Amino acid sequence: MTEFRGTTINGKAAANWPAIQRKCAKWDRFIVEVRQLDEQREITRKQMAWLHCENGPFAMLSDHVGCSRLTAELLLKKKCGESLFVKEIDGERCIISKANLSVKQTNQWFESIFDWMESIGCPVPPPDPQWRINRKEVS
Question: Which of 31, 86, 127, 135 could make an SS bond with 50 (beta carbons 3.0 to 4.6 A apart)?
């Protein structure tokens, strides 16, 4: 997803609108989302980015088990976050997106990921060595 960020000056948008229009022109259809910056959601986005990096849990589990990264993500959702991700919809068990997790829920999921991956012999390093201490400040 492409994001356009900007600020307001005296109540008026201060953004590079021509650049935004050029980005949008690449697509037949598009949505430009304008929302108030929420620091808590931004932390979650940074947390989510770590999941996908080369030394993140998706890549490490994928290499350890010999599966795709998508399969690794689904496995971590089921094994480490069943209460967060597995929902029953119209009688079917579905795995839902991680996009709407709060910072607290994300931290809980990460804690489970660290513990479970260590238990299968594939310990994953946290994105920040002080992660366990810092998460208490954010939660």
Answer: 127
Number of domains in the chain: 2
Say yes or no: 88 and 33 in one domain: no
The beta-carbon contacts of 113-121 under 8 Å, at least 24 apart in sequence, are 113/57, 113/76, 113/80, 115/80, 116/76, 116/79, 116/80, 117/57, 117/60, 117/61, 120/64, 121/64
Domain residue limits at 98: 38-138
Say whether pTM exceeds 0.70.
no
Please check whether residues 95 and 59 belong to one and the same domain.
yes
